[in-house]
Automatic annotation (TrEMBL):
<feature type="domain" description="Glycosyl hydrolase family 30 beta sandwich">
    <location>
        <begin position="380"/>
        <end position="468"/>
    </location>
</feature>
<keyword id="KW-0378">Hydrolase</keyword>
<comment type="similarity">
    <text>Belongs to the glycosyl hydrolase 30 family.</text>
</comment>
<dbReference type="Pfam" id="PF17189">
    <property type="entry name" value="Glyco_hydro_30C"/>
</dbReference>
<keyword id="KW-0732">Signal</keyword>
<feature type="signal peptide">
    <location>
        <begin position="1"/>
        <end position="21"/>
    </location>
</feature>
<dbReference type="InterPro" id="IPR033452">
    <property type="entry name" value="GH30_C"/>
</dbReference>
<protein>
    <submittedName>
        <fullName>Glycoside hydrolase family 30 protein</fullName>
    </submittedName>
</protein>
<dbReference type="GO" id="GO:0004348">
    <property type="term" value="F:glucosylceramidase activity"/>
</dbReference>
<dbReference type="Pfam" id="PF02057">
    <property type="entry name" value="Glyco_hydro_59"/>
</dbReference>
<dbReference type="GO" id="GO:0006680">
    <property type="term" value="P:glucosylceramide catabolic process"/>
</dbReference>
<dbReference type="InterPro" id="IPR017853">
    <property type="entry name" value="GH"/>
</dbReference>
<dbReference type="InterPro" id="IPR049161">
    <property type="entry name" value="GH59_cat"/>
</dbReference>
<feature type="domain" description="Glycosyl hydrolase family 59 catalytic">
    <location>
        <begin position="67"/>
        <end position="344"/>
    </location>
</feature>
<dbReference type="InterPro" id="IPR013780">
    <property type="entry name" value="Glyco_hydro_b"/>
</dbReference>
<dbReference type="InterPro" id="IPR001139">
    <property type="entry name" value="Glyco_hydro_30"/>
</dbReference>
<feature type="region of interest" description="Disordered">
    <location>
        <begin position="91"/>
        <end position="112"/>
    </location>
</feature>
Length: 479
């Protein structure tokens, strides 16, 4: 919208806003954004298609494949996700939803010549990754192993816990497998490089505080540090100096925090601290200077819902908008990943459901809650300070690498009314606002910009998520 039109709308709307507030005495508030107060840098938002979920996507018709990919990665018609978390297989086979290993059989000990096998497909994760990279420009790929193959472990099985042979307190008659495991992870990165996908982050543990009947491997912080000391040089030797090590995807935020003491000595060899939200939600920062990612959360059991808000149920969109807020603003997270993107079946463990007859693909409002963050808070964005907020609302703000400033107002309560957002020391040539609530699937929300280009005003209704985006003077005008 041209600035002249905005001014006319601004004057009209201010008069209207004042008239309304006297009649209905609703929320009225000014949020001030302070660009000089900076917090963490964002790496992005994302999800995964591990455990053969990518195969489910690929089995769809070409039209539904494209629709699914657009919903995940398209920056104008979907969530615009910028991070994909892939699973590095550890299973000897592909039965059930297993992720098969690139070395399913013991090559004859930790020092034997490796016998890697690669099908170029990796349960269709190569296809999803290639589409993400080539079609949609995704640049961040997190390859994460749930376990080492069974023959490298104390329990001889990639499932049911057990530890990697050779870490502190885990000795095996077969020897020390730390170096062989590091080499194996490096080889996985090389296979992806060969198909044109650069893995940027690698993790060697998933929920090391939990034993499950599927791929799982136990580790404490010391045992993780033992692996990191071997993995970092192995990556560097293979010229993967840019590939960062992520650790440790603990089951909950506080269990990851509890591992930090034993990881301190290897913090300079680590890239990102990763944690899930199942046993404890992100409520305060993890004790580290490194970027922290929330790498897995979902409503695992609840019956499928696509709702934005009905009774604040565990699968509703507004609830997820709030969860993301807590991770970023209260717990300093630089990335937020939902567990699964696209999958069939009756639970909320995914954001997008493949119908039982596989003839349709249905996005939930959880996806759009993610999208309302992901599309406006881009990789490299720096979170900035805000003060003042409407009653019952959660407010966050970011300066994006392209110079735009985006401000999120999540009104989780029943207040509604005019909200003014002022960005100190910043002159906008234009402002846009988008709204998500039970009845609206966005489109634009009417918003006005003050004549000095610093303050935007819009009506923020109850139980809604409104995003303001300020374009700096001098930027080429967008659509
Ligand atoms: C994203 O979606 C828009 C709108 O449907 C479409 O025009 C565009 O081609 C898509 N982008 C990519 C990279 O596929
Ligand atoms: C190492 O990687 C860099 C880019 O990351 C590349 O320019 C260089 O040629 C590589 N060297 C070797 C020995 O592969
Ligand atoms: C937040 O994360 C950044 C790294 O992204 C770190 O430098 C900073 O110390 C963290 N802040 C707190 C309060 O933990
Ligand atoms: C925000 O969420 C709504 C649905 O609640 C969705 O229709 C809309 O496309 C989302 N906005 C963006 C920009 O992703």
């Amino acid at each position: 919208m041209a600035i002249r039109n905005l001014l006319l709308v601004a004057m009209a709307a201010t008069a209207l806003g004042e008239a309304r507030s006297t009649i209905q005495s609703r929320q009225s508030s000014t949020i001030t954004v302070d660009l000089t107060k900076t917090y963490q840098t964002m790496d992005g938002f994302g999800t995964s298609e591990t455990f053969q979920r990518a195969n489910q996507m690929r089995a769809l018709s070409p039209e539904l494949q494209r629709y699914s990919l657009d919903l995940l990665f398209n920056r104008t018609s979907g969530a615009g996700f910028s991070i994909l978390r892939n699973g590095i297989g550890s299973s000897p086979d592909s039965s059930s939803d297993h992720m098969v290993s690139i070395q399913p059989k013991n090559p004859g000990g930790p020092n034997a010549e490796p016998k890697y096998v690669w099908d170029g497909n990796d349960n269709s994760q190569v296809w999803v990754s290639t589409e993400a990279a080539k079609t949609y420009g995704v640049r961040t790929f997190y390859a994460n192993a749930w376990s080492a193959p069974g023959y490298m472990k104390t329990n001889g099985n990639d499932a049911n816990g057990g530890s990697l042979c050779g870490v502190s307190g885990a000795t095996c008659s077969s020897g020390d497998w730390k170096q062989a495991y590091a080499n194996y992870l490096v080889q996985y990165i090389t296979y992806y490089k060969e198909v044109g996908v650069d893995i940027t982050h690698v993790g060697f543990l998933n929920e090391p505080d939990l034993t499950t009947s599927y791929a799982s491997m136990r580790s404490n912080g010391q045992q993780a540090a033992d692996v990191i000391k071997v993995l970092r040089p192995a990556l560097d030797k293979a010229n993967y100096t840019q590939v960062k090590i992520n650790c440790c995807d603990a089951e909950g935020w506080s269990s990851q925090n509890a591992m930090m003491g034993q990881l301190r000595s290897v913090e300079n060899q680590l890239g990102v601290i990763t944690a899930h939200s199942y046993t404890s939600q992100p409520g305060s920062p993890i004790n580290t200077k490194l970027n922290v990612w929330q790498t897995e959360n979902a409503d695992l059991q609840g019956p499928w819902t696509a709702a934005w808000y009905s009774n604040n149920g565990a699968g509703e969109g507004l609830l997820w908008a709030n969860k993301i807020y807590d991770a970023i603003v209260r717990a300093n997270a630089s990335a937020y990943l939902y567990w699964i993107g696209v999958q069939g079946g009756p639970t909320n463990s995914k954001m997008i459901r493949i119908s039982d007859d596989k003839k349709s693909v249905i996005p939930s409002k959880r996806l759009w809650a993610m999208a309302n963050w992901s599309r406006f808070v881009r990789p490299g964005a720096v979170r900035v300070g805000t003060s003042g907020s409407p009653s019952g609302a959660k407010v966050s703000a970011f300066k994006n690498p392209d110079g735009t400033v985006s401000v999120q107002v999540i009104q989780g309560g029943t207040s509604s009314g005019a909200v003014a957002v002022k960005v100190n020391g910043f002159t906008a040539q234009a402002v846009k606002a988008w709204i998500t609530d039970s009845t609206r699937d966005v489109g634009a929300l009417e918003v006005t910009l003050s004549t000095d280009g610093t303050t935007a005003t819009a009506n923020v209704p109850s139980r809604s998520f409104v995003t303001f985006v300020f374009e700096p003077v001098g930027a080429s005008e967008g659509s």
